[in-house]
Amino acid sequence: MNKNLFIISLLIYAWWPVTAYAQSPVILTDEQGKYTLGLHLAYLADPSGQLTINEVISPQYAHQFIPSQEETLGFGYTKSAYWVRFLVRNDSHHDWLLRVGFPNMNHVDLYLPATGLHKVSGNHLPFSAREVANQNIVFKLPLSPTQTSEVSKNSEVSQTSKTSEVYLRFENEASMTLGLTMWTDEAFAMFCHSESLFLGALYGIIMVMVLYNLFIYLFLWEKEYLYYAVSLIAIVIHRASVNGLTQQYLWPNHQWNSYIIPIFSATFELGIGAFCCANS
After folding, report:
1. Angle, alpha carbons 128-184-244 (nearest 5°)
2. pTM of the predicted structure, to 2 decimals
3. Residues whose CB is less than 8 angstroms from the CB of residue 184 and which lie 6 or more positions away in sequence, other chains included
4. Does domain 24-184 have CATH number 3.40.50.10680?
5. All structural domains of the chain with their residue ranges
6. Are 123 and 255 contacting, i.e. CB atoms less than 8 angstroms apart?
7. CA distances from 23 to 15, 170, 182, 231, 245 (A)
8. Angle formed at CA 266 by CA 99 and CA 77, multiple of 5 degrees
9. What is the pLDDT of residues 124-141, one digit of tens each?
């Protein structure tokens, strides 16, 4: 009986790492221009922040990654660094981009261990250091396409698919929110165009409201209009900082967003409070 239990325990122990490591790869095709990676990810917390890529890919840590159950991973405010891993197979003829959906990530490292590739980004680097000039953190992801070759004897075509393993390391002083997507160049350009039109219209409408309330204040000298205008200005700067636009256009060589976001959030609340008091 004890011998049987020992054998069963041994089989469970041998089987567990394999299932823990198992991840479904993202298969890129010519028919789709965007892929959400959330359910293809596995993650590893690094409370010390000292793990290296060589340690993370070693057997000691490779089986400690936890498969994601969410489209967007969220770990709240944490001092831990987080490692993310996914598998990808390029069955397309496109070049691909990897987008981090949280613009205010302090440090992001991208690794392709098989090729030795290492790229760095994040809002603690000058904006000019970004590989793609976008308010979000975007990497060019060089992936080997599926190889097609002809077998002359049987006049058949064979394909050799290569699955790449991609690792990312995230470190942040604010919220740890990991929403990752992959895009073709064309799809991403169209998305950025639509996003720019939407944000431009949104901020334009708010700035018209700011000018209108400032005009009324200068004409009537009633403070509630000034308070309301200040609140609108604060929310514009706050949201533009959250969206990464201020670092792109206003202070590309400075890491001020970590301070600007809470300051203008508080300014907005104070302005709204003063506006309500003035109207009470």
Report:
1. 35
2. 0.83
3. 33, 34, 92, 94, 95, 96, 97
4. no
5. 24-184, 191-279
6. yes
7. 15, 20, 17, 47, 35
8. 45
9. 999 999 999 999 999 999
